[in-house]
Amino acid sequence: MVPAMADDLPRGEEKAKAVRAMFDAISERYDLVNRIMTLRLDLRWRRRCVSELRLQPGSLVADLACGTGDLCRDIARGGLRPIGFDFSLGMLGHARTDAPLTQADALRLPLPDRSVDGITCGFALRNFTDLDRFLTESARVVRAGGRIALLEVAEPRLAVLRWGHSLYFGKVVPRIGALLSDASAYRYLPRSVAYLPATADLVAMVRTAGFTDVRHRLLSGGISQLITATRA
Description:
By secondary structure, the chain is α/β, with parallel strands linked by helices. Helices cover 43% and strands 22% of the residues.
């Protein structure tokens, strides 16, 4: 089942505009806040994401919603060739990567069919206005046999861990964000989890888009999730 969405969360074009404006606003300190609120676990998650691509050295990988280029740097360190796409100019303006970067909507990529060997996306699935379209667009540009690796936040399965994570993500993270960056943005980010489908639905969506060997893993006790798959 897909979780019920809060009535006051934006949808459609309103959501797209709100997300773009939010990331423009928090771009300058985005990396700093990420490191603090994840206790630097995000670095480990991104490295795992790249390693699970299992691509040959020199393979071309498109990082979608690339932000400031964290995953692009890890892709390059993994011996692969990154290119990045994000629709927030603010994020691209604060990027710290040598990879080629382009402002673009991940739902309408300026790439030919079957033109990349892999795709990564870090913590952005809940920010897209149409997750099905994101997945079908990813399937369009990845060659047959290519790979995708998608990182996203998650909720632990154990009740006690879920309670602690909910308290931290819902109460502590917004305070960190308010202190170091933009209060409204970091109030929105924990609530945006409501946009995510349930695990079984998400896996089914990836398969329907044209991928096989779909695997879902929970990381760090279940506070993060990684979805990998191979283009059919």
